[in-house]
Structure to design on (605 residues):
């Protein structure tokens, strides 16, 4: 963990812990009615936390959190009504039941959303539609579930309060005790979530938010992680709903309303998106301000003033209250990104590279071939890959060249799985991966670097390499060791704690290549790796590719003919989506047909 992230993690633990202790102390001395109202603010903060997990950390704006909240409340209350009358201790039944039901529903909805590969807007609309559907159905839905009666518009009443004792005569907590109990539950939920999000799972979720394609290119089943994250958010929302049912002793369809659904993102934005603790701050600020204004402090202008205050907070504190305080805190700490300024060109250590590749070969097996058999891809009337058959084997670098629009990158993306072909096959070794998703091809031995450098800009250089290495070894300490060796080989130790976004374009290219090397791939595809590099860096890259070809199968797409010449490998020319010519670079430079297509002369254009 980088220095700045370690500071952030400690702050995310210490300050919420202090806030929870203060809340527990205040619960004993404040007015009982205020304690009763404040309990709802904590519950709404927990509901906001469920959204921050999936939006602030996962990058998906879900408007279904109140759906999981309401369903958790109804289901937990039904269980509590039927069982607490016999056993007492309503909390033993309502909270686990509400949390579990919220997680199951969220997991099911998440599976539909993420495995359908919807866009961000479509996913948000579907989540909102789900909430509206529940609101509509709940208006007329009636059911007798044992002693519990769900009465449509009339809602469900007689929900037991927070009963901590056993036996039929056990009594519910008073307002002060109820507030203390909810603070304790919310604190436990927060610290469990914080631990999850600062660990390996959270690092992968952050990577998905920053660049979902790159995360899959590192071999992660990103949809599985998204569904699990969504299910955790549903668990938190369902828990909040069960708490709300016990607090209010009554539920009705308004819990699924549009107003409720849109309030949750406001809590998150006001408190600080992605901070985890922010939703509690936002819910308390909005709830406290509403309570104070509603007490007649402004002569009945509660809604107007509350709206102006919220607009002001969103406009002038764009990262929310905690986000703004976090920026102020970081401004007083040493800036680790200073190491990126004045950094020289990357100079690799060839001996270290050879050792890394030799160990990778011993662990992952020998290099594998990559074969494309009559591969065909169409986009409407455009055919960028037209029945191309090519075989790439280890031993020497392979280069794909051709004029712009020749189909080089499209061919590569079809081999990788970014594009699904209409015909033909792709094989890694003897394994047919034509229909396999990207992450399965990577696990089969493929490593890919696309045209533009794809790095996780908010993570440090070391963390980028760690995420890649962990995908292969699934062991934190072993991933640390691999990341450290690749850092050393690239000569980037001084920039280890620098955010990847502040590196130069050429350094980001090297970091991207380093991430591919962390995977120990048996087949390596590099799409214009020299783009944006200096001549000195390009020479280093040529050395790297030639060493790489001794241990793996390497395919390079490149426009720089001088760079291709230095690779001393096999060259394939594509033109109009078809295989046009093959040979070494010197022979192809003398081929009039190749000169025609590059120079635009009539015969072969």
């Amino acid at each position: 963990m980088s220095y700045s992230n370690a500071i952030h993690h400690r702050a995310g633990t210490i300050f919420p812990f202090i806030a929870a202790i203060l809340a527990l102390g205040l619960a004993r001395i404040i007015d009982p009615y205020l304690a009763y109202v404040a309990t709802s603010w904590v519950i709404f903060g927990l509901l906001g936390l469920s959204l921050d997990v999936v939006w602030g950390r996962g990058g998906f704006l879900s408007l279904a959190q109140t759906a999981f909240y309401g369903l958790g409340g109804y289901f937990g209350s039904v269980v509590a009504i039927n069982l607490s009358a016999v056993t007492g201790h309503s909390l033993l039944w309502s909270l686990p039941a509400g949390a579990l039901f919220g997680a199951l529903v969220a997991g099911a909805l998440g599976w539909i959303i993420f495995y359908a590969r919807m866009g961000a807007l479509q996913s948000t609309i579907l989540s909102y539609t789900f909430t509206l559907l529940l609101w509509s159905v709940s208006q007329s839905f009636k059911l007798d579930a044992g002693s519990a009666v769900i009465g449509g518009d009339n809602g469900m009443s007689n929900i037991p309060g927070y009963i901590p004792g056993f036996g039929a005569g056990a009594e519910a907590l008073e307002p002060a005790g109820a507030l203390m109990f909810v603070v304790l539950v919310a604190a436990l939920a927060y610290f469990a979530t914080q631990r999850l999000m600062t660990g390996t799972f959270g690092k992968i979720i952050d990577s998905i938010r920053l660049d979902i394609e790159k995360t899959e290119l590192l071999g992660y089943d990103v949809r599985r992680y998204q569904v699990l994250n969504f299910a955790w958010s549903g668990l938190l929302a369902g828990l909040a709903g069960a708490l709300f049912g016990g607090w209010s002793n009554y539920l009705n369809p308004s819990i699924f309303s549009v107003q409720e659904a849109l309030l949750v993102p406001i809590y998150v934005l006001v408190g600080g998106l992605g901070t985890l603790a922010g939703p509690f701050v936002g819910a308390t600020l909005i709830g406290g301000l509403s309570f104070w204004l509603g007490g007649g402090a402004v002569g009945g202008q509660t809604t107007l003033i509350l709206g102006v205050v919220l607009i002001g907070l969103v406009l002038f504190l764009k990262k929310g209250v905690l986000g703004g305080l976090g920026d102020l805190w970081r401004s007083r700490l040493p800036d680790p990104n200073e190491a990126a300024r004045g950094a020289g060109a990357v100079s690799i250590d060839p001996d270290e590279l050879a050792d890394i590749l030799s160990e990778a070969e011993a662990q992952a097996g020998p290099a594998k071939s990559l074969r494309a058999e009559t591969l065909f891809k169409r986009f409407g009337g455009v055919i960028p890959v037209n029945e191309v058959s090519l075989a790439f084997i280890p031993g020497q670098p392979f280069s794909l060249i051709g004029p712009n629009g020749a189909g080089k990158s499209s061919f590569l993306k079809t081999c990788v799985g970014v594009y699904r072909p209409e015909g033909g096959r792709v094989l890694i070794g003897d394994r047919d991966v034509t229909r396999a998703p990207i992450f399965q091809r990577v696990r089969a031995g493929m490593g890919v670097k696309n045209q533009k450098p794809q790095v996780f800009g908010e993570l440090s250089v070391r963390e980028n390499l760690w995420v890649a290495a962990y995908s292969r070894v699934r062991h934190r300490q072993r991933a640390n060791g691999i990341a450290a060796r690749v850092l050393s080989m690239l000569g980037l130790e001084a920039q280890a704690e620098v955010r990847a976004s502040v590196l130069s374009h050429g350094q980001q290219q090297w970091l991207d290549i380093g991430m591919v090397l962390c995977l120990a791939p048996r087949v390596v595809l590099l799409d214009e790796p020299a783009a944006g590099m200096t001549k000195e860096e390009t020479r280093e890259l040529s050395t790297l590719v030639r060493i790489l070809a001794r241990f793996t199968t390497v395919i390079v797409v490149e426009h720089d003919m001088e760079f291709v010449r230095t690779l001393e490998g096999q060259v394939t020319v594509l033109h109009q989506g078809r295989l046009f010519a093959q040979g070494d670079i010197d022979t192809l430079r003398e081929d009039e047909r190749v000169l025609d297509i590059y120079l635009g002369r009539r015969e072969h254009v």
About this structure: The domain at 350-604 is CATH 3.40.50.300 (Rossmann fold). The longest helix spans residues 222-248.
